[in-house]
Every structure is written in structure tokens, then in C-alpha cells.
Design a protein that fits this description.
Blueprint (H helix, E strand, L loop, with lengths): L9 H20 L3 E5 L5 E4 L1 H7 L9 H11 L10 H11 L5 E7 L5 E8 L5 E7 L5 H18 L9 H16 L6 E8 L2 H25 L7 E6 L2 E7 L3 H16 L14 E7 L6 H17 L5 E3 L10
Parallel strand pairs: 9-10
Antiparallel strand pairs: 1-2, 1-5, 3-4, 4-5, 6-8, 6-9, 7-8
Length: about 325
Amino acid sequence: MLAIGRGADPGIRAFMESIEAALSGLIGQSHVLVAVYDRTDRIRYANDAFRRTFGLDPEETPSWAEIMRRNLPQLKGTAIRSPDFEAWLTSTQSRRGKTPFRAYETDLTDGRWLWMTETVQPNGWMLYIASEITDLRPDERLLRQDRDLALRAAQTDELTSTANRRFVFGRLEALLLTTAATPGSELSVCVFDIDLFKGINDRFGHQGGDMVLRHFVNLVHQHIGRTDCFGRIGGEEFMLVTPGSGVETCRLFVEALLAEARVACPLPDLPALAYTCSAGIAAYRPGDTAPALYGRADRALYRAKEAGRDRVVLAEEPLSPASA
């Protein structure tokens, strides 16, 4: 929407409104794919070209994951060649919309090739624009695709398909710069650890342990927002970065995650395979570096495990006698 002041001249107002109407009509009729997603990754606007490409009815507003899941068996939209769709979905979601701007290429099941851009606001809303580049030289496209696949592999944890340590710490460093440059802004870091993970491996084998790790990753990805960054940073340890959230907001969110994990059943055929998590949270302080902020959250995690596991501890919070 174009900004028009209340006191604007009626002629100027009419002129601006005509431009807005023309712009809306041009976007709607354009062959360029245009869509807007909210911070939960749900479609809030899509022009006709986008809806035709991805098989959307005129008024429906599915999430991106719902579009991908629905189109896969119908051979519509994005060409997904991974033999493990769920792993592909997790990997893509862990990186999708995590930077203010991203450009990449992809191909569609109908043979078209698209150049796509994602522009993300600080509140998590994302503008998606894609143009067809099918006529460009195929050999150059394949070289760029190989480059993109290599970059994705370098940023993805092989076992769980979520972001890896390199990607998460890279995002944390970038978000710290943004937070430091914005007075009054907040950022929290939470470090998770699967409790008594060695015992899970000993009792159910490494396959059982792997299933627990994948289950926890999928659980977290179901609930985090676009601007949040989550990944596996080693072994059974994970990190969540929540820009714009103070420690209390982060604590409530993490407590809900731990409660859901507590009653989950990662393998329906093995109801005895259950798990809990411990978590430590630290809030951004002016001058923080990524290692310093992570270190405080990690020490809070250690205190949570010492206090009996299956709980959240804040870095600056003294443990009560009942919890110690």
C-alpha cells in the first residue's frame, strides 16, 4: 500500500490511489511469480502466475510446507529429487527466509527454470519473486545448481537435515550485529541437550538414538518462527537463536517444547522409547560476541542437568533450594 497522508490534496490522493490500483493490477497479471508469506510461512498474497504454478485455488492460504507436501504426489511446482522428502523439507526450512535477502535458482516439474528472490522484513514477513530463466544456457544452470547443492550440504547436518553448527553460529554472529545496531532490541540463545542420550543408545541402539534426534528436530521446526534459527551443534546438543525475544518469552516457548517432547513417542512401535531435554537460556548483553553468549547459555544448560535434567535454567537465574 502506498502511504497517503490524511491531509493530502484530494487530487494527489486520487492520483496515488490510481497508481496503487494500477500496480496491484500489473502484479496480479504479471508472468513473474509474486507471493507474500507471513512469519509462520503461510501465504498471505499470491498473484495468478504463482497460484497456477503451485496449484493454489484463488482464495486459499496454505503454508509453504503444506504446498510442498501436497504438490509432491501430484508432480506440481518445485521439482524435488531427494529420495527422503521429510529430510529435504527440514533442510530447506532450516535455511528458508533466515537472511534479509537471498537469491537462488530452482527448476519446476513442468521443465521451467526459475530465478527466485526472498526479501525478509525484521518481523519475519517475506516477499517472494520468481522469474523464468529457462532460456539461459543449460550447462551454466547445471553448474550453478551444483554450486547451490554444495553450499546446502555445507550448511546442513547430515543426520537430522537441520542447520549445522557452522550455519547457526554464522547466523548468530550476523544477528548480534543487527541487535547491537538497534537500541532496545532483544535476542536470546537457548542450548538444548537430550538427557541421558548414551542410555538411549545403549538400550535401543544407535538407530533408536538417531530417531530421537530427528524427532526433536522435527518438533522444534513445527513451532519456530521464520526469524528464529535452529540447528544441531554437535552430538545430542542443539541451539536456538530467537531475535526479538527476551528471556521470559524464550523460556515460555522452550518450556512448551520440553513438555511436548516429554510425552512424545518418536517410534510408535517402541512406546518405551521416550526422552526428555534440558535447556539453558542466555539473553544478549551489549558487547556480546557469539562465543560469549553461547558460553553463558551452555553453562546454564549444565546447571539444568546438575539440577535434575528435564528443565530450563536461565543464565542469570539462581536455582531455588527446591530445584538444586
